[in-house]
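Subject: for your reference before the review

Hello V.,

The reviewers asked for a structural picture of the protein, and I figured it would be easier to keep everything in one thread rather than splitting it across files. Below is the amino acid sequence we used in the manuscript, unchanged from the supplementary table.
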Amino acid sequence: MRATNLYAPTLREVPAEAEIESHKLMLRAGMIRKVASGMYTYLPMSWRTMRKIMNIIREEMDAAGGQELLMPIVQPAEWWQASGRWDVYGAELWRVKDRHDRDFCLGPTHEEAITMTFKQDVRSYKQLPLSLYQIQTKFRDERRPRFGLMRGREFMMKDMYSFDRDEAGLDKTYQRMHEAYTNVFKRCGLKFRPVEADSGAIGGSGSHEFMAIADTGESAIVYCDTCDYAASVEIASVPAGACEKEAFGETQKVATPNCASVEDVANFLGLPTSTVVKTMYYQADDKTVLVLLRGDRHVSEVKLQNLLGCLELSMASDETVEKFGGKAGYLGPVGIKGIEIIADCEVPLMYNYVTGANEEGYHLLNVNYQRGDFVIDKVADIREVTAGEKCPHCGGVLQGARGIEIGQIFKLHDKYSRLLEANYTDEEGVERPAVMGCYGIGVGRTMAAVIEQSNDEYGIIWPMAVAPYQVVVIPVNDKDEALTAAAKKIYDELLRAKVEVVIDDRKERPGVKFNDADLIGYPLRIVVGSKSLAKGVVEVKIRATGETMEIPVEEITEWTKKRIGEELTK
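And here is what came back from the structure prediction:
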């Protein structure tokens, strides 16, 4: 490809809309352009990378026994109503009507569609196991699209669905897909961790997210360096540690003016936040619950929502709180009636703690559940785990990190097959619902995650496997005919050798060409200059390391092929 023909409109300035490095660099390197909030055009350079990622995915999915198909983007509402997700998915589900006023949705995912496909044609156990996948555009009407391709309203996704006879078959398929996902992300050059995760609106039980480690990731995870345990902080669980037994202190009401937060109260009383029990009111669908948690902990709303089995979960209004006798900023469980009280596992083990007095400007000292100061209706693990706590598997110390979710695998069991009546007949002639799994990869997210992990102050640093082009050839003086002819010869030889190469034949200063090469992130840069050419060599720069070397002109094609081969087989 000649640079004079290449559509890669680079920018010198960072667009104001871009918040994270991958978004900035994709805009500056001429890879994407915004169409609307959360929607982008993939320009040629990014689309080449997207296709490479998709080809890696296809190779690994095919090797794992998958068969590719393509399902419609538009899906009938009846399918989603039958599965119960027409309402569960909420406002993110992009609903549309046709000219006959029939309801449809733009698919955010395809569990219903694939289950109906299975239902049409699969009848016997002899047709199982079966794994089908597609790479398709998805739509989710995100409340707050942000970070470029990280959280969009229109995006490219690979989703595979497996159908097995029983749970044992699902376990085997799930493990096979876990290995396939590991291969995909290794080949893309990513640093990642598979972590235990919540299934969310997809449903089922048993799930792992594949997290690309990055400071800009939206998800917090904990992991153990001693064993292979890793989980999102939302679902990670550690046993509640026993507290040292204390004699019950006398309950006292004390004035705490202008102390409406745990930190304010603790500072005012000269106590650590761990000696405070914070009280929160949550609205779970049409039910209000009171939640108790140690003052230095955070509620996992995922755990709480799963515990309550509700569709919507939010903090209750001040008006609702006061209806039950609470006072915003000074909440406590003592004396509260007529509401379910849920306590985290640590709370019943604590002694002599501080709570709100349900009166503005006052708190209670030396409150004790074990003495009967208040009641608890349900005890459950509802908190987020933090770095520094003990690993639940081996007792090691948990480390913390942030990650970008690039893929997730789920055990759906019979959730969709049962509701949509997707059955097979076993050897005894008995109809049984197929046992399903679901496996998704965000293609655009994967590309953005690669950039987020591989960049420097000058631009993108592409791993060879997913670089839009592998090599750029730069003649430094477009007015020197001998030099440009030599550059053209090298370019032609690389093309014949099936190397993905660009020749920068623009009438620009060398500095402009070098800057663009670094910004776009070509893994190898071959510079043809007068002085080096006089010595019979060209200068090669390796983008990932910054290393430069001189390679004889007659050896450059073979050297380049060898270098690319080594990078691709790492």
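For the response letter, the relevant points are probably these. Residues 126 and 426 are 8 Å apart (CA to CA). The first strand starts at residue 32 and ends at 36.

Happy to draft the paragraph if you're swamped.

O.
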